[in-house]
Amino acid sequence: MLIPLVFALAGCGRLAVPPVPKGEPVELSMSRAAVTWTDRWGGTLELKPDGTITATHVCSDYDIIDGTDEPRSGSGTWRNESGLAGQAGTVIYVDFETGQGEVTSSYDALRNGRTLKLWTYVGDEDEGSPLCILAAPAG
Fold first, then answer.
1. pLDDT per residue as tens digits for the range 66-91
2. How many beta carbons lie within 10 A of that of residue 114, not counting itself?
3. Fewer CB within 10 Å: N-end or C-end of the chain?
4. Alpha helices, DSSP H only, in 20-107?
């Protein structure tokens, strides 16, 4: 009885939730977050001190409604919020226009040793898609 259930759940992607990246939630001031973050495919998200952004082929949670699951480019705005719902850490919110529509996404901030990361699930977390992880420059 258990084996058919396992295969049924795996077929629905319910056993493929990618683990959260290693690290602890970290609070980032606006000045510390205002750097160029890079994903593993070379996409960048430049968070500027004035609250604007430039995204170049950056990964995000994507717009799963229209099925466009690809990195996006454009410009727009960003903001950070800390301590949401009583939890530690900062969430970075971005909104930018791509020329094909608006992207609205959020990234959680982590620190793993000296490495700062922003991350989000791509699509529904139980679909097993790879995570979108952006790293800050060393320093």
1. 555 678 899 999 999 987 666 789 99
2. 8
3. N
4. 30-33
* H or E, element range at 117: strand 115-120
Cα(93)–Cα(82) distance, integer angstroms: 11
Q: What angle do CA 111, 117, 122 make, to 5 degrees?
A: 130
HSE at residue 88, side-chain half, CA atoms within 13 A, is: 6
| Amino acid symbol at 17 | V
CA distance 135 to 68: 23
Contact 57, 42 (CB under 8 A): yes
Does the predicted TM-score (pTM) go above 0.85?
no
CA 103 from centre of chain: 12
